[in-house]
Design a protein that fits this description.
- It is a single chain.
- 50% of the residues lie in helices and 21% in strands.
- It has 194 residues and is an alpha+beta fold.
- It has three domains: 2-67, no CATH class; 73-105, no CATH class; 116-193, Alpha-Beta Plaits.
- β4 (149-152) and β5 (155-161) form a beta hairpin.
- The N and C termini lie far apart (91 Å).
Length: 194
């Protein structure tokens, strides 16, 4: 009898290294006199349960870290009422929430445009205010996708015809007053670039 139980346990462990606690739980849950297969199945279930519990602990840690970051940034404040932890938005949190909702409600246009090849250089210069950073980032990405090359952070150049949809999007985003577009038709100091 004793050899049978040992054989069953050794069979359940097999060539793997197992946690002693998991093995004990598996043997006890499989029941007295259980076969090696039944104990192995119980071991898999114990391992799965432990992994699920670990994942849930990781999620809890991420949750509490997120709450701590929001408190540290001054976006939420903790209150205690009747032994319960309650969280509320601060004034700064309300402002951030409004900004995030506005951003979600006003998505930027796509930055993928198809520009035609040109024989002349097109130069795009812009001075978009810091408060419109999202629009400025969109503009840089659109110019990059049009295969213009950055000469300076706010000056881009390339031999490309800008598509009407790009110009329409500039207008839609109210960027036309911040953007200048030039075409160079005569050689000059740019001779070495051609």
């Amino acid at each position: 009898m004793r050899g049978t139980i040992t054989l069953t346990i050794l069979g359940a462990i097999g060539g793997a290294v197992v946690d002693a606690h998991d093995l004990a739980v598996a043997i006890l849950s499989a029941g007295y006199g259980a076969s090696g297969n039944k104990i192995s199945r119980a071991m898999r279930e114990v391992k799965h349960s432990r992994e699920k519990l670990t994942a849930s602990r990781d999620e809890q840690v991420r949750y509490y870290n997120m709450l701590a970051a929001l408190r540290r940034d001054g976006l939420i404040a903790e209150q205690r009422r009747g032994g319960k932890r309650l969280f509320g938005l601060t004034r700064k949190g309300m402002t951030r929430l409004h900004a995030l909702r506005t951003k979600a409600a006003n998505p930027m246009p796509a930055t993928e445009y198809t520009g035609g090849v040109s024989d002349v250089f097109t130069i795009v210069a812009f001075d978009v205010p810091e408060r419109d950073r999202r629009k400025r980032d969109w503009l840089r990405e659109a110019l990059r996708n049009l295969h213009l090359r950055m000469v300076q952070k706010s000056v881009w150049m390339g031999k490309v015809k800008l598509p009407k949809t790009f110009i329409d999007d500039l207008s839609h985003l109210h960027l036309t007053e911040h953007v200048e577009i030039f075409e160079i038709t005569k050689r000059g100091s740019l001779k070495h670039l051609m």
